Amino acid sequence: MKNRTAILIGSIxxxxxxxxxxxxxxxxxxxxxxxxxxxIGLGFLxxxxxxxxxxxxxxxxxxxxxxxxxxDWTVEPAxxxxxxxxxxLDFSQAVIPVGETNIVMYGFVNDLEIILPLDTGLRLKxxxxxxxxxxxxxxxxxxxxxFEYETPDYALQTRKINIQSLSFVSEVEIKxxxxxx
Length: 181
Fold this sequence. Notes:
Oligomer: single chain
């Protein structure tokens, strides 16, 4: 899984280089053919992607949008697609099912804020060209490097949330919710 991003980026660079060489040597502009095919392929992906998701997974597609999950809400498997997205997932008052719940985010620019209660495990994998992460006040910047985080007690928790984020530019912040009594 870690090498998928490197393979994807490497493949894209090889294809771009091959197109440039063909254009320079033979004067054939493949972009006039390939660009419309890419648009058609993206259209098919958007239309048929919900049918390929595991059962019970919600598919949410927004070009630009904000998602604010807080207060009383039920955590369900979901896949979010957006060009520019701002997502706040406050799990402190959420109904989290027993077992592992998968949430996937795809986008060009993503901003993700996670508020996690102490009795829930979190696994986060963020991939992208540039992303900034803040985990409990500690900040890191990443360029061309994946970020992975897992709560120390993830394997022991009965309620687990597995979040995957793939974007060009992203900002991820993880906060711990502490009950004040």
